[in-house]
Amino acid sequence: MSLDVPTHALAAAERGDLDDAEFVVIVRDSLPYAWHAIAAAADDRWARPAAPYGMHDEPPPSDRERGQLLRALASSAIRGALERHFGVVLAFQNCHKVAAFVPADVDGPTWHAFISPRSQVLNQSPEMRDC
Length: 131
Prior knowledge:
Elements: H1 7-15, H2 20-30, H3 32-47, E1 54-56, H4 63-74, H5 76-86, E2 89-93, E3 97-101, H6 109-115, H7 117-122
Helix pairs in contact: 2-3, 2-5, 3-4
């Protein structure tokens, strides 16, 4: 199970009343490592306005944390809610390298360079083979 959903949130979802803010709290509480990594990338981006993107690239301490990050970034609903919450567009390499782009920069040269197959290949290492 990806998320720990409180009873009141499940009831709200069944009624069609679950909003982004409540969903983001569920994500934050259920996937604390993923929240930390994505918040760090977004904070890095907003703290350095001249930077092309914000970054969090520390390997997760265990497979549990890695799984949280993979679940957050693989789920369209979770990823979308986090992007809206932090005001960024996320990009992802390997099993831990999260970049946060300003939405206006998506589709620009830095974005395309980051998400390219070339960049993915150049960011491989034997240590990350099974991540």
